[in-house]
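Researcher: Predict the fold of Protein arginine methyltransferase.
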Amino acid sequence: MAPSSDTNADASDERKDSDLVLEKPDKIGDADFANYFCTYGYLYHQKDMLEDTQRMNAYYDAVRKNPRAFKDKVVLDVGTGSGILAIWAAQAGAKKVYAVEATYMATHARKLIAANGLENVITVMQSTVEEVELPEKVDVIISEWMGYFLLRESMFDSVIVARDKWMKEGGALFPSNARMFLAPIRTNTANQKYNDFEDSCGGWDNFVDDTRENYGVDMSALTDTFEKEQREFFLNTSAWVDINPSQLLGAPCVVKEYDLNVVTLEEMKSVDAPFSLTVLDAMGNSEVGAFAGWFDVHFKGSKQNPCETEVELTTAPDANGATHWGQQAFYLERGIKPSDGGAVWGRLEMKRKRENQRLYDLKLTWEQGEEQGKPNEEIGESSNVWHIE
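Model: Structure tokens for Protein arginine methyltransferase follow.
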């Protein structure tokens, strides 16, 4: 039986949506669209974030438990996505909400907002926030901008642009504060990573032998390059993990804090901070297989307009499971043994990649001893660099 004309129209509309998701706005660079913006145009990606109950509950509580911050106020939602934060702001009594979204998701946000009867309060603007022109200043900027280990994706750059250009004096950012944490963890994955690296290099050696024997070409000139490539992948790239609190081998330390109402763009581009950890070995035979990093954000408002109820969103290890951000594991090629000293201290350096400003390289340099400042001379200083991708 031939499909009806209505069915054909529906299929055509679906194809059109698919094509439009991949249609790059003029103001966004080709690489930035392909590597970053494009993904956020798909509903499946939005659904992943909307199903994160810790994320959703924190933002929902931040809006609903602070009615004075939104009642009769003008609100800007940076990177509105599906439009849910804009909807909550309008439901909380905002006079006007400007929802800015660079991708084709703006079309879906308009549809969702209209379905909830809020199109007269919320205006969706498909644009980057850097290019958008608002008719007025705003009282509140709300945005879910955080990436892995807080800074990956560098989306807060856009929030800073919006804050400095469009927020009224004394206005508030939601969230308003952020912290980055580092902790030692117990894990067997570090050993597995190293074994996988060695297996891959062994596989290359077999490949070189087979290619020489069967095809008369000696590939060994590329061995060093292949090993370097595999080392980068297996040993120098961080990993998304869902850590159980039982894996922690010591209390986390705060390595960086931000007051988002005043932090500058330059201050967000890199991190260079000391850290100090105490490794606890309750089991008596554990060793640190990785450092783990995560973040939290707080909704406090501003000095001029503080929140009635402060709300926290944390991505710390949780026995009930991780947020969609999880934690980042920085696996160690050589584990840290508590028997060599329970104090570990050093520096964390984090910089944006030259070739992609939304990704970061993280370097940890550390010493170990019985107490901070008195290193175990037999171990010396250790360091490694990981790519947060």
